[in-house]
Amino acid sequence: MDIDDILREVDPTFHSIPQEQRDLQDLTRAYVAERCAPELLHYPPGNLIDRVHENIKRQIEMVEEMTGNMNPKTNFALIVIQNELERYRFILRSYLRERIRKIHKHTLHYLSTDELRSRLSEIEVRYATARQSRLHEHYMSSFLAEFPPQLQNLNDTAGNLNMIDSPDLDSAVFVRLLRDTLVESRGVDDDGLIEGKEGQIFILRWADAKPLVERSSAELI
Amino acid sequence: MPMYGDAGLKLVQHAKRTQNLTHLPPYQTELVRSVAKEVRDLHKDATNLLEPFLKVQGSFDPSTDPATACTLLVNHLSMRRNKRCLLAYHRTRTDKLEDLVWSGHDVLDLSAQQTGGESGSSSLSPQEEDYVRQYGDLLAAFKGHWTDIDLTGSLEPPKDLFIDVRVLKDAGEIQTEYGAINLTKNSQFFVRQGDVERLIAQGYLQKLG
Description:
The complex is a heterodimer of chains A (about 220) and B (about 210).
Chain A lengths: L2 H8 L7 H19 L11 H20 L4 H34 L1 H6 L1 H4 L4 H21 L29 E6 L3 E5 L6 E5 L4 E5 H9 L3 E3 L1
Antiparallel strand pairs in A: 1-4, 1-5, 2-3
Chain B lengths: L5 H14 L9 H28 L9 H37 L4 H8 L11 H19 L17 E6 L4 E5 L2 E5 L4 E5 H9 L3 E3 L2
Antiparallel strand pairs in B: 1-4, 1-5, 2-3
Helix pairs in contact in B: 1-2, 1-3, 2-3, 3-5
């Protein structure tokens, strides 16, 4: 028996709304993918995060309402709901933090082109830009201001060495195929081409797995 | 006689060591200054070296004078290397400071305590203190969007709703949905994890079991 089943029995508002359940599923999938992928993925489309956030808000309100009630039956339900709420909050928090961690690590990289920038949410872009400019000010006032002007940049590419660090797209990830598809991969000596079946699990370079994941032919695990 | 780049190397070693420390060692004001000075001196040298060429020919052709070209190249690379050393050192420290801000410590207070609070000395440079203050504001604003999930909360998956905690330092009275609890030192409570997470992170409470 799943926690959802228990909730459905004790909470009369739960059974008729499959949307919320789908949201949780989508969030969990986004969370797992974000944790597994070496680079920042797209912010989920369609206000998923806002909806989830709304749900959490509602749940918190409900918990507060129910707290006054000392009826042992609702009290048990309350504990179940709080448990669920804590887990829900954890997934969302952990998801957002993972994104922040990646943004921190390669801020300039993700802010450098429009394509990369579009992966961030509005709030994230604002945060990343503000942080980067403060960091730059900090470098400037600490030592960079004393440098000759042509050495003050933070995005030089002189000597074939890009100052902007970017994530390693060739690091390995595990994927599970969601449908039959052709799996192409580049190897060190030889490239591979495999007729993949649904449910099979592969270990691939992220760069090779990315198109599969984006087509929803595979999910990261 | 210290060589070019020695000070830069020392900075990087400091940074490397900082990565494994739980606290932030004092800011190396002197080292940073001498590395920055080295860059300025090197730049002056380079300008002086180039000057006669620019005056006579208007430009410098490396193939006519390989020796000068080599000196310029080495000069230039040294400057770049010093810049990288300085960036690495400062970035390591700001990363650490940001971590401290995320975990909810009062960084400015903490650094003053470490040095014994003598004559207002701090392990942070004035610029770093500024940065911490600004970053604290920035993070608070960012967190404001997500008040309901407590963005800086624990990243351990929640197992139990209620946990046993022991009070390590007097933390006064806290309000929970089951009433007020007075947290006096050495007492033990069975409380909702969400209510006391902050206090655990700040070291007032210890989680048992």
